[in-house]
From TrEMBL:
<keyword id="KW-0238">DNA-binding</keyword>
<keyword id="KW-0812">Transmembrane</keyword>
<keyword id="KW-0472">Membrane</keyword>
<dbReference type="InterPro" id="IPR016032">
    <property type="entry name" value="Sig_transdc_resp-reg_C-effctor"/>
</dbReference>
<dbReference type="InterPro" id="IPR036388">
    <property type="entry name" value="WH-like_DNA-bd_sf"/>
</dbReference>
<feature type="domain" description="OmpR/PhoB-type">
    <location>
        <begin position="1"/>
        <end position="103"/>
    </location>
</feature>
<feature type="transmembrane region" description="Helical">
    <location>
        <begin position="137"/>
        <end position="155"/>
    </location>
</feature>
<protein>
    <submittedName>
        <fullName>Helix-turn-helix domain-containing protein</fullName>
    </submittedName>
</protein>
<feature type="DNA-binding region" description="OmpR/PhoB-type">
    <location>
        <begin position="1"/>
        <end position="103"/>
    </location>
</feature>
<keyword id="KW-1133">Transmembrane helix</keyword>
<dbReference type="GO" id="GO:0003677">
    <property type="term" value="F:DNA binding"/>
</dbReference>
<dbReference type="InterPro" id="IPR001867">
    <property type="entry name" value="OmpR/PhoB-type_DNA-bd"/>
</dbReference>
<dbReference type="Pfam" id="PF00486">
    <property type="entry name" value="Trans_reg_C"/>
</dbReference>
Amino acid sequence: MRFLINNRIIFDEDNSTLALAEENLEPVTLTTIANRLLALLVKNNGILISRDFIFSTVWDDHGKTASNSNLNNYIASLRRTFSGLGESEILVTVPRQGFMFTAASIHSVADNMTQDETVPAAPLPVRRRCDAILPKVTLLFIGIALVLAGVYFFTERYDTAYQTQIASYKSCRVETLNASERIDERYIADALERLKSRGFDCDVPATVYYSRLTYHYTNYKKLIDFISYCPKHRVKNMDAHCEDEFEVINEG
């Protein structure tokens, strides 16, 4: 199967290649494992994929032995390849959780490039606790919310995502995972407004993750605001877990 990524890059799963759609350049040939890994990420675009699930699907199911070092090396190699094709931020590492492919659009295409169809959307599951190990395929919104939902509940150290403190409110530390959005006074004000309006308890120590994704269409743009509230300690003898919400805003 061939996939058109962001209307400019062709991923040919059957031939293990990546290439720009409109340029007659030699395609990049992927190794078998890199091809298998990329296929998993592309087919679950916008979904947080845990390391354990990647190990099982890409390595274990094919009789191979996986390691964090191997996975990190393949991810780094794919990042370099996509960067060379003009997509430097399409593959995101979520701290201590896993990885997510974040293309704005992915279409399956015929070999002659005359037919295309949108990759079918996956069914929407029930919202999961932030410490879930194996995320199910879901829509983009819930997938991104899961990215924000569990950063503090995994102890192993892996590559970091774009994670920056932007503000504080009472005992809440407000951080953003955005890499491409401009972090200005309005962005920070919006983050604090979202935090206060949700009624989260900032009288106890907590980390709040805020992220805004912007998608541009022909006649309008869509903003998706995510906020995830993660208390640091047990509350009322219950395990601390993250609460996450999102809001979709259409602008003309």
